[in-house]
Amino acid sequence: MTLLQVEDLVKRFEGVIAVDHVSFSVDESEIVGIIGPNGSGKTTTLNLISKLIEFDEGEMYFKGHSFSKLKAHEIALMGIGRTFQITRLFRSLTVLENMFVPVIEASKEKKHKEALEWLNFVGLSHLKDELAGNLSGGQQKLLEIARVMVMEPVLLLMDEPFAGVHHSIVSKIVELINKLREEGKSFLIVSHDMHTIFGLCDRMIVMNEGKKIAEGDPEEIRRDKEIIRVYLGV
Amino acid sequence: MDISLIINGVFIGSVFAIATIGLSFFYTTTGVFNFAHGALLILGGYLTYTGLTHLNLSLVPAAFLSVVAVGLFMTLFYRYALLPIREQHITAIIITLALLLMLERLIVVLYGPWGLPFPTFFPGVVIVSGTEISIQKMFVSISSLIAIALMWVLISKTWIGLGIRATIDNEHIAASLGINAGRMHLFSVFISSAITAFGGINIASTLFLSPILMSQMNMIAITVSILAGLGSIWGVIPAAFILGIADTIGASYLGGWFRFVSMTVVVILVLVIRPRGLFGQKERVI
Amino acid sequence: MKKMWNHSVLILAILILLIYAVYPVVTGDSYLIRVFILIHIFAILAASMDIIVGYTGQLTAGHTAIWGWGAFFGAWSIVYLNIPPVLAIIIGGVVGALLGLGIGILCLRFRYLLLTLVTFAILILSYALARQFASITGGELGIHGIPVLSTNRIIVFYISLFVLIATIVSLKLIGRSEIGMRMRAIKDNEEGAKVLGVDVVKYKVMASVIGSFFAGVAGGLYTTYMGSVGASIFFLDHLLRLILMWGIGGGGTIIGPALGAYVVILLGEYLRFIEEYRLILLGIALIVILRVFPAGVYGVLEKILSYPKRLRGDHK
Q1: Is B282 exposed, middle or buried (0-12, 13-18, 19+ CB in 10 A)?
Q2: Which of A137, B3, B117, B226 has its CA 20 to 30 A from that of C204?
């Protein structure tokens, strides 16, 4: 069943078209990757879905309902979680406080326990009273993922989850994504790490200059001459 | 040095702290510098005066009503006049200046341009090693510090406080985690305006109640918040005591005019030499 | 934009100006003449503030401080140096420009809020200094009996009208020139302007000097019209009124803030029956205008005047 559906999404920045009539969908329990050169509109697409920026044209549906008019926090509460390319933690808050932020609006005290469990899961519970700004890069990435999981998102938008972290942490994140997918969660992942993303995704979307230029399973994409041209610039 | 000078300095410091903390908190959460702050402060005093004299209330309900009324008024004003445009900095500042003008006029119209007698709730003095200390002043210092401590608990130890701190830290991530940042702004505006009104009652009960106090207290609050560093909420407290004690000592040696000149010189010097103040973070200063 | 000011609008504007100019001679209504002189002075102040705020995007709170010092130096030059009052207006302008240069350079390190706060402190400092050095400023009571421009108010009306028109024309010319374009670029995006090769330092200081020159002129005019000046010239009230004029008239257009001076002062005069409430009303008006028609009264007039033209355009 289709979870997220994006139709003819358009975003312009001062005359430059950043996202140009892009349409795609993400099914339940599916991992979809978006690849493309720098400036091809990948991150902007994620920002439009999570409403960190407003889009100009198009329509978006979640579980068949349009959410184009919702605000950023309403989209988050609906079940679309988000992680960022440059890890964005509340640097002035402790690790534990970071974990509690998603629970505030839900105001369920039992989730308190869940926050601690997730922290345990990513192996950061011994650092719970440390300021988030003091963690190492890899730890920050794990904390960001654990934090968004407290929200119990159905769909997770991840921007470069493998960038700038150690190999061991990359495999840990991959393992986590696969496990969560089996639990029924869906993922839309933007990445430059070709090796990892090709191994992980069920389906890939290729973007260039704001347009979707190809879509298919990893094998199809790998064979596509046009994509090789875009990437190698031949 | 005269001990009574130090005691008075501590008293003035606590008054400066309660007069400033709301301005600093308001700015830190919303990013809007509220030039109408001084007006909200003395509005708290005037509304309490109305409660005491016209409505014949006793002190606690009169003070409570005025604190809630100022808090609600500013929250509504923020919601409809400032929240939608708070990122256009010129428009936002001009709107707070317009609010200052309107509140100042309203107070003059309703209460007259001259000072009003505000009751002293705790008359009498205690004598500590030969120095007289007014009980009213002690009460004001202690209740101001308690109010600030309560605000600290609210922000540091509660769920709403966590939401507010997350919003201060980064509004976009907070939204991506389901926090309604606009609502957090409204909470902060309410808390900061309510504590400001409370400060106004304290100031009225020890100094006097007059429209002149508005621009003086505005300048004091601006100076303390800049010395503390814009965006530093708790830095306001040490900054208030430093300035309060310096002000008392300076005024006793150099005369009253010292106050106005020194305040403005502090603002200009701090901003030129160290724009982030004593306790501010660099990245929050715009 | 320029096309919109077609001949009929231009003729209408000149006609209104002519009627306005002969009005005092025909009617001799001395009350209204006094009001108009005051409006001229504030219109010069509001229009000159616009080159700093509306064009370059620096919200200065020190404009009335410069106005005040222009007035004081004008007064001193008459009282101590016995120069003719007309020259005192120019002295006010020169002092204003020098202060504008100093403040402009000081404020280069500040943007947005910090700039407003520093200039706000300068205004309060000016008041404190003027009160402290009462022996030369007259303190709160002020200096009185300064020789005036002319005891004939009609002459003062024409002089101030002339200065106002000269101010608007020169500011408008600067605004339309490349200098004005660069100032606007700084307002829109300072970093972007830097990248495009705009000498941000130069144009910011230039805006401050030009705007402050006219503020000083307005100060000289004020003191030689009133025959007195005191520390109260630095009251925050003047700044707040000036901001009302700027916002209600429509910032960024030079003419808009000058029109704002007419709106604010005339409404203030004609709404005397509601006394102090008129400033509250004007405050509400400012907030509504900023939120609903940010282009102000001038923007609304512009729309109305261009309406017939657009209608014709549609029928083509």
Answers
A1: exposed
A2: B226
